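Worked example (supplementary).
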Amino acid sequence: MMRNVMAIMQRDVLSLFCSPIGYIVMAGFWLVTGALAVWNADAFGPGKPATLRDIFMWTPFILTIIVPAMCMRSLSEEYRSGTFETLMTAPVSDAAMVLGKYLAALVFYVIMLAGTLIYPLLMAAFGNPDWGEMAAVYIGLLLLGITFTAIGMFASSLTRDQAVAWILGAMPLMLLVLSVYNLVRRVEGWQREFVQQINIIGRFSQFARGQLETSGVVFFLAVAALFLFLTVKVVESRRWR
Amino acid sequence: MIEVRNLTKYFGQRCAVNGISFTVDEDTIVGFLGPNGAGKTTTIRILTGYMPPTSGTARVAGYDVLSQSMQVRSVVGYLPESVPLYPEMRVREYLDFRGKLRGLDGGQRQAAISRVVERCWLSEAYHRPIGQLSKGFRQRVGLADALLHSPKVLILDEPTVGLDPTQVRETRSLLRELAADHPILFSSHTLSEVEAICKRILIIHEGRIIASGTVEELKSQVGGERRVLAELKGPEADVAAGVRKLPDVLNVRVATDGPWTRLDIAAKRDASQAVSELAASRGWAVRELRQEQPSLEDFFVKAIIAARGGTR
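After joint prediction of all chains, the assembly is encoded as:
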């Protein structure tokens, strides 16, 4: 099982770096993150605190578009090209295939994230940052990736069309992130408590402030596990059709 | 090696495979023949563990395709019809990846890859990206992949479709070679191909097996009459009358070509000798005299017409 997961992961990482999509996604993420950091957040302004909070404030929104684009090929392309058939007639379980592909997307995500390490390095060069807080921000970003990638994979498992997979992943994610972010300030009482539970921006900003909340970690991991499970079920169901 | 019993597959309301049963023994190469859309690919996909049957059972090398899918997959070498491959990978990378999925370890995997690369004449394409390869080479990559884990059974879906005549010939001779080591089930809609390589033939039409047997058995079922074609130099009326009087002759069709008379003779037995003796006794020169072999084509057409209920 583990050997198959690793083999599929390696192949998918290679495939992501062989396709223009991979580079466009990565460059797009760096470009937008950088532009927002410099122009909008003015994070490197004189006298500002040496914190990553402002730089990554909008990152969850960017990731709702970027992560589904990173995942859209994952299963859709296998369906479209027919290589799904060669995979599913090799002794590979559905779960091993989904897990391998998921880990490949995560490896790509981590590499993409590593590109933003330039900001803490710059902060360290010109200021005196709090390393603990910075580590918390990166843990938050990693958790966001773990969750969004699982949702992107699920979208990709639904269709053989990459563009459809991207929209199916990005639209609900964006809606969820934006609407909950706006809603949370307008409701009261138990409703507010409920909305806060699924407020991705809110949960991420806890990490951005340097707080490592167990409930946040559990939330992101649980959502990821749920969507991975659903992806395996969709892949299983394809052969019954 | 392959045992299929009452296999049925529905896609929604549409019945793709309708209660078929057959077996493929060891050391044999079986052609699975039928017009497009007859249910060949569906049957093959069930046998390779890609889709479950609606009802019925299939066993490959003793393993049930439904409950022992993983075991089936590890003993079957399968080449799907469209030969799906990853265009961005090199042949070397692809075979290495497939070897890992097959559970072959480092040394074992290298040995297996060199074996199949040699067997499928892939050495010149070994370092090239699959996306740049011709259809013929891609077919060989697919076949190399199917052979990588020394499968107990080879299942090939239309292995020669889309190839040029030289490639078709190469693939056929490769299949004949492979048949010495593995039982092979391969599908085709080309009769001559099946006739050229197979020991046994299964004919499927609209989800049912309408005939099965060896090439000779099927040919002998075409009909009792034997045909002889002859061209004799003599007056048309005399020749035709003389031939019609020969024993066992059922029907003669006559045509002329200058001084020659063309005859198409249908008889209960082979009439060549009687025709030759008649020509000798009358002093007619003989330009052509041959027995027409009943072709599988005839059988195929007849069987399908019969399955449709006699209407053409």
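Two points are worth noting when inspecting this output. DSSP finds twelve helices and no strands in chain A. The mean pLDDT of chain A is 90.
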